[in-house]
Specification:
The protein is an all-beta fold and 121 residues long. It is built from no helices and eleven strands. The model has no long low-confidence stretch (mean pLDDT 97).
Length: 121
């Protein structure tokens, strides 16, 4: 019953900006960590950014200083603000959340459907 829906992907020129959103809905007791991953053709899926329930963040070295992850707990939503985009940022971006569905259950990973980000002139 838990689902994550992503939005905000698209085509942008190098140096441009995009903001991705991912909202969770369904039977949710609590959400711990939230994160964004990406996968380019022929490459492994990699962690882009991660934010804990306490607001601590981590970023891949390749995006530090350009991307910002944030969360809105009231909306069960995680965002990824992407600035100064480069062609090498082109990938399918997936959101991920560690979600507990009830107080007596552990958290499980849930994934969004993926959204395409293409950076090209």
């Amino acid at each position: 019953q838990v689902q994550l829906v992503e939005s905000g992907g698209g085509l942008v020129q190098p140096g441009g900006s995009l903001t991705l959103s991912c909202a969770a809905s369904g039977s949710i007791f609590s959400i711990n960590a939230m994160g964004w991953y990406r996968q380019a053709p022929g490459k492994e899926r990699e962690l882009v950014a991660h934010v804990t329930s306490g607001g601590n963040t981590n970023y891949a070295d390749s995006v530090k200083g350009r991307f910002t992850i944030s969360r809105d707990n009231a909306k069960n939503t995680v965002y990824l603000q992407m600035n100064s985009l480069k062609p090498e940022d082109t990938a399918v971006y997936y959101c991920n959340m560690l979600i507990r569905r009830s107080w007596n259950q552990p958290g499980y990973d849930y994934w969004g459907q993926g959204t395409q980000v293409t950076v090209s002139s």
